[in-house]
Backbone:
């Protein structure tokens, strides 16, 4: 039989489609682009990336993790430039995969990646709370957080805002409580059930809440024109492309590692997966759609639904295409507060509270990097926040790598014995010199450096100068590494 697992893959594809549909629409609306563009990215994630080698069971599409960055890019550069940003991201990912750089993303500090996701989650939650109330959110992360009390005060005096908040809160409650319902009920994915119930309540009670604006699949496509490509000379645009590449690639490859732990099938080939993601983003860019990443929510649903091969994710893309072609008008009935509620819930899951607590108990330096990265993203912006986190991680690693130990043995008579071990770098040079200069000046010294794994030029020069000064009164015998 040519497709021995067709039945399992067909059933899994329907589950993934039902999970992906509300998330594709919600991410697009929260990103400030037409809802149909989220479906386009989901379709490309299934029909293009889904066909390619790399990871057999993870599913790609628009991700909540890029929502904040896409929204800021569209607001700053305009929707026509989005396609250029995504196209450039895809081409860079393909090149990186061809150069076999995919595996090196696994070397990025986990604290930085989780801090990045936590920062995104905080900004996403803060921004979508305004959408839950049917109000426009401020531009910056700090303004979003600082404006929440005022937003709630304004909402308290508006019947429309209170109805919108009630619908959004109900959506979040359904998502939180869904996993506690009987297994038979949970065959319907939580996000789909939450949106369907919110839509039904809105129609039955005639709630005065905003709904999705429908433009049609073809009408929403925004292929970039030549004028948009001229923006690649803008430093800010290039910085946004770099942020897209870093976040999309890291999230996809970390997702691949997580999905590999969920099944016993073929392991991910990281370089091929990075090229597959790049191919998908290249197509999305040419269509002017949202950037894609591998999404752990859809991927885990795919594995848990019994998928055995990549056919399930390809078919899920086909179901999204059929929906976009045959039933686009159905999107117009979906209330925006329900989509905002889904993204508030998704943002909360991006904040790794358990991991922070575990890191604080075992690796406080890593926990500090995570928190600083998240706070920097909220206070400044996505790209600079990630750079701050990476800088802290590099500085911490350099400091730990320069660990050095000086053991002094003074028997009261004869030469003082000093043993240096570890890594002697300029970072620890002040400590080394302070300890050596505190040795008795009227006694000979035997300095044994054979235990050093590394001795940089600055330390070697400083130690030679110290030995020369000390030898002016008493001799210094040096054993070099």
Residues:
């Amino acid at each position: 039989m040519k497709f021995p697992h067709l039945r399992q893959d067909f059933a899994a594809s329907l589950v993934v489609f039902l999970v992906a549909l509300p998330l594709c629409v919600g991410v697009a609306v929260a990103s400030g682009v037409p809802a149909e563009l989220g479906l386009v990215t989901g379709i490309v994630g299934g029909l293009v990336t889904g066909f390619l080698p790399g990871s057999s069971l993870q599913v790609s599409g628009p991700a909540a993790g890029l929502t904040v960055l896409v929204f800021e890019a569209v607001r700053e550069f305009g929707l026509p430039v989005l396609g250029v940003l995504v196209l450039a991201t895809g081409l860079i990912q393909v090149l990186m995969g061809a150069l076999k750089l995919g595996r090196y993303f696994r070397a990025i500090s986990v604290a930085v990646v989780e801090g990045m996701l936590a920062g995104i989650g905080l900004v996403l939650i803060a921004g979508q709370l305004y959408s839950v109330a049917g109000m426009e959110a401020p531009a910056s992360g700090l303004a979003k957080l600082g404006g929440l009390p005022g937003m709630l005060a304004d909402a308290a005096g508006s019947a429309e805002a209170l109805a919108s908040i009630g619908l959004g809160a109900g959506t979040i409650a359904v998502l939180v409580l869904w996993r506690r319902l009987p297994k038979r009920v949970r065959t319907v994915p939580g996000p789909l059930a939450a949106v369907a119930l919110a839509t039904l309540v809105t129609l039955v009670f005639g709630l005065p809440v905003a709904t999705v604006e429908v433009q049609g699949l073809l009408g929403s496509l925004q292929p970039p024109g030549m004028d948009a490509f001229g923006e690649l000379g803008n430093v800010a645009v290039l910085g946004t492309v770099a942020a897209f590449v870093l976040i999309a690639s890291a999230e996809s490859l970390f997702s691949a590692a997580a999905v590999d732990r969920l099944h016993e099938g073929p392991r991910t080939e990281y370089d091929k997966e990075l090229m597959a993601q790049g191919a998908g983003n290249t197509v999305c860019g040419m269509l002017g759609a949202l950037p894609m990443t591998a999404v752990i929510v859809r991927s885990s649903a795919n594995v848990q639904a019994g998928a055995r091969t990549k056919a399930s994710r390809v078919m899920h893309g086909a179901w999204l295409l059929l929906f976009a072609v045959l039933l686009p008008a159905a999107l117009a009935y979906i209330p925006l507060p329900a989509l905002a509620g889904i993204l508030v819930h998704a943002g909360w899951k991006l904040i790794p509270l358990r991991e922070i607590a575990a890191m604080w108990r075992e690796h406080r330096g890593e926990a500090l990097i995570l928190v600083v990265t998240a706070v920097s993203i909220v206070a400044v912006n996505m790209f600079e926040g990630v750079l701050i986190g990476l800088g802290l991680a590099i500085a911490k690693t350099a400091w730990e790598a320069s660990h050095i130990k000086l053991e002094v043995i003074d028997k009261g008579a004869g030469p003082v014995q000093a043993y240096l071990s570890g890594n002697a770098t300029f970072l620890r040079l002040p400590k080394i010199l302070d300890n050596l200069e505190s040795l008795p000046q009227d006694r000979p010294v035997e300095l044994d450096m054979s235990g050093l794994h590394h001795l940089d030029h600055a330390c070697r020069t400083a130690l030679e100068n110290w030995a020369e000064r000390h030898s002016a009164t008493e001799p210094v015998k040096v054993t070099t590494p």
Notes: The chain has two domains: 5-396, 403-479. The CA atoms of residues 111 and 268 lie 22 Å apart. The longest helix spans residues 235-260. The beta strands are 60-61, 293-294, 404-409, 416-424, 445-455, 476-479.
